Amino acid sequence: TLAESSYVLTEFYTGVSFKECERAVRKFTAARYQPVIAHAERYSCLRRKGALEELIHGGALIQVNFESLLGSVFDPTYRWVKGHLREGNLSFFGTDMHNIGNRSPKIGKAVKALRHLAKLEELEELLWENPGRVLEDEEL
Fold first, then answer.
1. In this model, does residue 99 exceed pLDDT 80?
2. For residues 107 and 113, what is the distance between their CA atoms, to the nearest angstrom?
3. CA 7-20-68 angle, 5° bins
4. In this structure, which of 71, 99, 104, 130 has its CB flanked by the most CB atoms within 10 Å?
5. Domains and CATH numbers, the chain
6. DSSP string of 34-96, one letter each residue
7. Are 130 and 118 in contact (CB under 8 A)?
8. Burial classification of residue 60, based on how many CB atoms lie within 10 Å of its CB (0-12 exposed, 13-18 middle, 19 or more buried)
9. Quick check: 97 pLDDT over 90?
10. 3-class state of residue 136 by DSSP
């Protein structure tokens, strides 16, 4: 779990089916855990219209990588993240940094981009309030 809370960071392989995602969300919520889908922008099954919303309705929270904000309007991942950000479907931003030597995060650049895409209240929620609630094991 994340910080010994009821939140579980849930990562799938990129070719996961929607049914597998849905089943995992159901199992975690039935066991009274709060699944956080990590790197949601990577899963092609979630590109289907309404798929992400179905998982959210089933109890999932959604995390995407900061770097997904560094694309352009021609980048389908950037457009997908931007659309779900505007719809209020995202709960967290994160990195995929496992060590500073191989993949250093570009958080500063991404936050600058995020400031142009979201209101200050949304930024505070995504970057401070929601992570703080996880640390305190409080409901989002």
1. no
2. 10
3. 65
4. 130
5. 2-135 (3.20.20.140)
6. EEEETTGGG-GGGGSTTHHHHHHHTT-EEEEEGGGGGS-TT-HHHHHHHHHHHTT---EEE--
7. no
8. buried
9. no
10. coil
Please count the other Cβ atoms lying within 10 Å of the Cβ belonging to residue 47.
12
Give φ, ψ of 122 to 5 degrees. -65, -40
Q: Which amino acid is at 45?
A: C
| Average pLDDT of the segment spanning 44-55 | 98
Whose tokens are 């992400």? That residue is: 52
The pLDDT value recorded for residue 37 is 99
Give the C-alpha separation, 106 to 115, whole Å. Answer: 15
Amino acid present at 128: W
Percent of residues, the chain, with pLDDT higher than 70: 94
Residue 103, pLDDT > 90, answer: no
Q: Average pLDDT, stretch 46-66?
A: 98
Please report, for the chain, how many H helices and E strands are present, in that order.
Answer: 6, 4
Q: Which amino acid is at 52?
A: L
CB 126 within 8 A of CB 118: yes
Cα 75 from chain centroid (whole Å): 18
92 — phi, psi (to 5°)? -150, 155
